[in-house]
TrEMBL record, chains A, B:
Function field: The RuvA-RuvB-RuvC complex processes Holliday junction (HJ) DNA during genetic recombination and DNA repair. Endonuclease that resolves HJ intermediates. Cleaves cruciform DNA by making single-stranded nicks across the HJ at symmetrical positions within the homologous arms, yielding a 5'-phosphate and a 3'-hydroxyl group; requires a central core of homology in the junction. The consensus cleavage sequence is 5'-(A/T)TT(C/G)-3'. Cleavage occurs on the 3'-side of the TT dinucleotide at the point of strand exchange.
Species of the source: Phytohabitans houttuyneae
Binding site for Mg(2+) 2: E68
UniProt keyword DNA-binding, yes or no: yes
EC numbers on record: 3.1.21.10
Superkingdom of the source species: Bacteria
Reaction(s) catalysed (UniProt annotation): Endonucleolytic cleavage at a junction such as a reciprocal single-stranded crossover between two homologous DNA duplexes (Holliday junction)
Protein name: Crossover junction endodeoxyribonuclease RuvC
Subunit structure: Homodimer which binds Holliday junction (HJ) DNA. The HJ becomes 2-fold symmetrical on binding to RuvC with unstacked arms; it has a different conformation from HJ DNA in complex with RuvA. In the full resolvosome a probable DNA-RuvA(4)-RuvB(12)-RuvC(2) complex forms which resolves the HJ.
Cofactor list: Mg(2+)
Length: 174, 174
């Protein structure tokens, strides 16, 4: 299963593509950071982000997209841009007909490190180990996007197994 | 000049299409409210909004799009959805190759009523008079979207005249 994870941001948007199955080590496919210029018009920035994400979805053909869920409790100065970038990311997946899941930062941290309180350095270090990389992915936005993709593979896997079991059960009951 | 105004919201998104030139009464073309179900998945809601806005842009072929600028000072419970809906609206214009302008609520209120402090009832009442409608547009989201479109025609007009004067001046100086 190939998953495209997005750590949304208007100035820096992390994208990570990971291949894997639940309970097994995942493999890095690629990671990117999409930059937009804060001096540019909002329309231009959203358009650049939209086109870049559409291109990456078309290039890597993931089975699903995972996006970090944004909370209004976040940094108030940047939260509006983050919310707008997350909308563009969710749309990029939905328009391609892909299932899109959102995860809170705590869900991702717990899935990757075992603790919902992990800091950025711990996330980067675990992502580097889990994907058996020689170097940590930089910048941190890319590591966060890869963490989202890994979280989705592992959790989606659990859900898929449950769904398979449930549908088998339903099938048996017919 | 035909303008499509958007009062962004995830549950209710107002859209108003107005035709006019600066300093003259404007004419109503159409108004809509796009609803999405809060019980639905975020991806489905953004996709429905995206498709509806793209359809309205294609149907009415406006010369430009005006979207209300969202502030994080707004209602914290709804601000994330509003920011995401505004991103979809700005993108719908940008993807169609149209100029997109954002206006703060105070700018719109000042342009329509002469006061940046006007309330929703005053906006609705002025929009009804300015467009010479028999009935006030309902719900208020539609009136706000029409107010945005009128604001853009009047202010854009001022800018166009300045630009025309500037380019005439540049032409004369050659």
């Amino acid at each position: 299963m190939r998953v495209l994870g997005v750590d949304p941001g208007l100035t820096r948007c992390g994208v990570g593509v990971v291949e894997g199955v639940p309970g097994r080590p995942c493999t890095l496919v690629a990671y990117y950071v999409i930059y937009t210029d804060p001096a540019d018009d909002l329309a231009l920035r959203l358009l650049h982000l939209d086109r870049s994400l559409n291109d990456l979805v078309a290039e890597h053909r993931p089975r699903s997209v995972a996006v970090e869920r944004v909370f209004s409790q976040h940094n108030v100065r940047t939260v509006m841009g983050t919310a707008q970038a997350s909308a563009v990311a969710v749309l990029a997946g939905a328009r391609a007909g892909l299932p899109v899941r959102t995860y809170t930062p705590s869900e991702v941290k717990a899935a990757i490190t075992g603790s919902g309180q992990a800091d950025k350095a711990q996330i980067t270090s675990m992502v580097t180990r889990l994907l058996r990389l020689d170097e940590p992915p930089r910048p941190a936005d890319a590591a966060d996007a890869l963490a989202l993709a890994i979280c989705h593979i592992w959790r989606g896997g659990t859900r898929s197994k449950l769904e398979a079991a449930a549908s088998k059960h339903r099938g048996g009951a017919r």
